Amino acid sequence: MELQVDLEGFYCNHWPNLKIILNNNKLFSGPVKDQTTLTFNVDCNDKNQLVFEHFGKKFGEDGIYDTVPEESIDCKLQIKDIRFDKVSI
Question: Is pTM beyond 0.85 here?
Answer without folding.
Answer: yes
